[in-house]
């Protein structure tokens, strides 16, 4: 025991339980899952948790609202296949993601493709397959017209609008002010007319204002502003949008004090708004696109303790994992102040937390800190550490090749 003061950790998501004193994921113990996978480090994505999450969303939101998976947080192929028939559409942000979604059997008509800097060959592939392009600029729209002409295929073009508002409390703002995303709202009516005049199929609007918001009121306000802006731009162009993608931005609780989004409040408010639409949006179809919120809490990162050492009175649990798989948990992926993700000693899940122990990775850099001074059960070499909230922006958003380490194993269970 040391007298180091413990630092708080985030809340463990509600989808996990204990079995024989161990963390259980979908009814199997962490050690059984590691044995099945054959090694650590291992990401486990729980289909139980995903199923519950989707059911919560379907219950909270109006039936006519479509639910899309924005796959950039987790493009693991078995997860894409699992998701394929459980959501209504996929939003991809690169030609690579588009190919992964199609390889998972997602029908191209259900896919929309956003992202600045789409290359001609990516546009061409998308247009050929009937994917909706969320146009990020007038220049991109012109390239799509030319490619459509050359191929003899009508491009399906929605306009990504750079909104004049942002998502309050958002971890990452993606709208409001000068941005590389979307077309500034005041230029959108002209672009709608240009798309229609060029003979392309105008699919409507894509409006994405930010990410990782926990405050229901902020999300409700953003959705109301999004609807108002869609109506205003459609009025200015004199045409109704067939589709409006209202964005997403729902966050998950990672850190001490974070509270889950009040889904029923958001769903209720959106239900009301959709039942009182202005005439120009009466026949419009709406969707939301969620990445992190769908998959983030379903993932657990499991790594093994290789060494246990003491330095200047502090204990370090050195694991075979690290920031090369969990950059965000180390505090190096878009965070200003480093705070602790939820963490546990997976094979001592029900043991009393008695000792402050740092959890570090195996990389030769002081940045590789997975949990800073959490209070945990006393852990030993060979124990398994679980870092929660690992289902989004983990495996694919971390520098797996750093220090020659290579990727973690992944498993959908
Ligand atoms: C990143 C991104 C998303 C997903 O964001 P989450 O925070 O994971 O929900 C959705 N749409 C667009 C356009 C994005 O760039």
Number of contiguous helices: 10
Instruction: Provide the CATH architecture of the largest domain.
Output: Alpha-Beta Barrel
Low-confidence stretches: none
- How far apart lie the N and C ends? 37 Å
CATH topology of the largest domain: TIM Barrel
The tally of beta strands, per DSSP, is 23
The distinct bound ligands, ions and cofactors come out as: pyridoxal-5'-phosphate
Query: Percent of residues in helical segments?
Result: 25-40%
Shape: elongated
Number of domains: 2
CATH superfamily of the largest domain: Alanine racemase
Derived from helix and strand composition plus strand pairing, the structural class reads alpha/beta
Written overview of the protein:
This protein is of the alpha/beta class. The chain folds into two domains: 17-46 and 297-412, Lyase, Ornithine Decarboxylase, Chain A, domain 1; 114-290, Alanine racemase (TIM Barrel), CATH 3.20.20. Helices cover 27% and strands 24% of the residues. A hairpin with a 2-residue loop joins strand 16 (299-311) and strand 17. The model has no long low-confidence stretch (mean pLDDT 96). The structure holds pyridoxal-5'-phosphate. Residues 70, 72-73, 91, 93, 114, 208, 211-212, 248, 289-293, 392 line the site of pyridoxal-5'-phosphate (PLP).
């Amino acid at each position: 025991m040391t007298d180091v003061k413990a630092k708080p950790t985030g809340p463990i998501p509600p989808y996990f339980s204990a079995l024989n004193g161990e963390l259980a994921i979908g009814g199997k113990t962490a050690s059984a899952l590691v044995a099945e996978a054959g090694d650590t480090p291992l990401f486990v994505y729980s289909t139980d948790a995903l199923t519950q999450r989707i059911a919560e969303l379907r219950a909270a939101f109006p039936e006519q609202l479509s639910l899309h998976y924005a796959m950039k947080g987790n493009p693991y192929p078995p997860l894409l296949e699992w998701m394929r028939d459980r959501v209504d559409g996929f939003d991809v942000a690169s030609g690579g993601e588009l190919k992964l979604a199609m390889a998972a059997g997602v029908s191209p008509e259900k896919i929309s493709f956003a992202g600045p800097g789409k290359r001609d060959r990516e546009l061409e592939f998308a247009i050929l397959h009937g994917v909706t392009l969320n146009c990020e600029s007038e220049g991109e729209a012109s390239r799509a017209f030319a490619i459509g002409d050359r191929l003899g295929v009508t491009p399906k073009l929605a306009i990504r609008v750079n909104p004049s508002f942002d998502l309050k409390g958002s971890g990452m703002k993606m709208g409001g002010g000068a941005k590389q995303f979307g077309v500034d709202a005041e230029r959108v009516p002209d672009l709608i007319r240009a798309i229609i005049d060029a003979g392309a199929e105008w699919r409507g609007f894509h409006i994405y204002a930010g990410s990782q918001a926990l405050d229901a009121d902020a999300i409700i306000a953003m959705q109301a502003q999004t609807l108002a802006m869609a109506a205003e731009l459609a009025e200015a162009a004199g045409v109704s949008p067939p589709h409006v993608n209202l964005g997403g931005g729902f966050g998950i609780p990672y850190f001490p004090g974070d509270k889950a989004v009040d889904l029923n409040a958001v769903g209720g408010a959106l239900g009301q708004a959709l039942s009182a639409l202005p005439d120009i949006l009466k026949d419009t179809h709406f969707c939301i696109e969620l990445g992190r919120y769908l998959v983030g809490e379903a993932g657990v990162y499991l790594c093994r303790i290789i060494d246990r050492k003491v330095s200047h009175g502090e204990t370090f649990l050195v694991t075979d994992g690290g920031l090369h798989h969990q950059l965000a948990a180390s505090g190096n992926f878009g965070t200003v102040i480093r705070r602790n993700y939820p963490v546990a000693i997976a094979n001592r899940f029900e043991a009393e937390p008695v000792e402050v122990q740092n959890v570090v990775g195996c990389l030769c850099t002081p940045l590789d800190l997975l949990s800073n001074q959490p209070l945990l059960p006393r852990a030993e070499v060979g124990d398994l550490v679980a870092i929660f909230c690992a289902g989004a922006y983990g495996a694919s958003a971390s520098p797996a090749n750093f220090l020659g380490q290579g990727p973690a194993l992944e498993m959908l269970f």
